[in-house]
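note to self: dont lose this again. the chain is below, predicted strucutre after it. 71 aa total, dont forget to put it in the shared folder this time
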Amino acid sequence: MKFDPKARELKIVTGCIVCKTCEFTASQIFQVEEKSLTAKVLRQPREEETAAILEAIKLCPEKVIHWKPKK
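---
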């Protein structure tokens, strides 16, 4: 079965420490907002961006990046 990123929703949950790891790993998807002290998802990733998203999830020290199936 092929992995379909469109069937998933990427989000940042409470607890971000603004370390900028996600933005560094996938700047086309994540943006750190220092004023609000959090990161945000700019857009949902495309299939070719899957590896970068999985790397950002793995490297996030607070484990606040979630990419779960859409309900």
